[in-house]
Amino acid sequence: MSQLTRKDFDRSLLPDVAAFDCGDVEGPWCAEVSDWIKKPDGALLAIVRYKTKVWLYYLPDGRLVGYGSLGTAKWEWPGIDSPKLKVFHIPFFRVAREFRGQPAGDDQVRHARQIMDDLIGEARRWHATGIEPVVTLYVDERNGAALRFYRKCGFRDFHEKKLASDTTAGKFNLGMVFPF
Ligand SMILES: CC(C)(COP(=O)(O)OP(=O)(O)OC[C@H]1O[C@@H](n2cnc3c(N)ncnc32)[C@H](O)[C@@H]1OP(=O)(O)O)[C@@H](O)C(=O)NCCC(=O)NCCS
């Protein structure tokens, strides 16, 4: 990471994420993303139960820029009709509103990209333990900024979530993959 430092997320860092909210400008996907890091049955449970890794990313002056997460999941891979294999999975990812699109200069790597590069770097290191070399995620297909961001990072569309009928949000979920 060129500019950000990260901390392993745990209960003691809950005050740092308390300010994450959706305001009235974000879409219907926002509550899930912002609640996940704050609620006891979200990130904290995933860390204990699924060994998900969750990090908070900070600027040198101590301001919180966002969070990233990385765990594993079972996906039909490499094709939608393949048997399920253990792959890397990013459950949730968020950059605070004031840091989106920042830093703005053409010659600088944006914060969101720095966090994603860090997560992919972790997957590459962790891959030595025998997990398939692909990072997966779901994105709400109405979330234009996230779709555009993931595509810029090299993710490609994979399939629509088969659990679509389970939740309202799930109906719009698109699976994306980044093979490495
Ligand atoms: C997804 C997210 C991490 C991307 O971070 P970011 O700082 O916005 O990333 P970028 O600066 O690369 O911007 C992404 C692109 O979306 C574009 N964009 C912004 N709002 C958009 C919208 N409503 N529709 C379409 N594109 C949009 C930006 O113009 C930018 O494209 P560009 O670089 O070609 O100009 C950030 O938007 C975020 O935290 N969103 C809320 C949480 C979330 O949705 N997380 C993902 C699901 S878990």
Describe this structure in words.
- With 180 residues, this protein is of the alpha+beta class.
- It has a single domain, classed as 3-Layer(aba) Sandwich (Aminopeptidase), CATH 3.40.630.
- It is built from five helices and eight strands, in the order E-H-H-H-E-E-E-E-H-E-H-E-E.
- The chain has helices at 14-17, 30-38, 43-50, 111-126, 144-152; strands at 5-8, 53-58, 64-76, 84-89, 93-95, 132-140, 156-160, 173-179.
- Strands 1, 2, 3, 4, 5, 6, 7 and 8 form an eight-stranded mixed beta sheet that branches.
- Strand 3 (64-76) and strand 4 (84-89) form a beta hairpin.
- Mean pLDDT is 90; it is low at 162-166.
- Coenzyme A binds next to strand 5 and helix 5.
- Residues 29, 33, 92-95, 100-101, 110, 112, 139, 143-146, 148-149, 152 line the site of coenzyme A (COA).
Structural key phrases:
alpha+beta, globular, 180 residues, eight-stranded mixed β-sheet
Could you name the CATH class? Alpha Beta
Mean pLDDT: 90
Beta strand count = 8
DSSP summary: helix tally: 5
Radius of gyration: 16 Å
**Domain count:** 1
**Distinct bound molecules:** coenzyme A
CATH architecture classification = 3-Layer(aba) Sandwich
CATH superfamily membership, which one?
Gcn5-related N-acetyltransferase (GNAT)
Taken as a percent bin, the fraction of beta residues is 25-35%
Oligomeric state as shown: single chain
Q: Please write the string of helix (H) and strand (E) elements.
A: EHHHEEEEHEHEE
Helix content: 25-40%
Quote the CATH topology.
Aminopeptidase
Give the termini distance in whole angstroms: 19 Å
* Structural class by helix and strand composition: alpha+beta
Query: What is the global morphology?
Result: globular
Q: Which consecutive residue ranges, at least 5 long each, have pLDDT under 50?
A: 162-166
Largest sheet: 8 strands, mixed
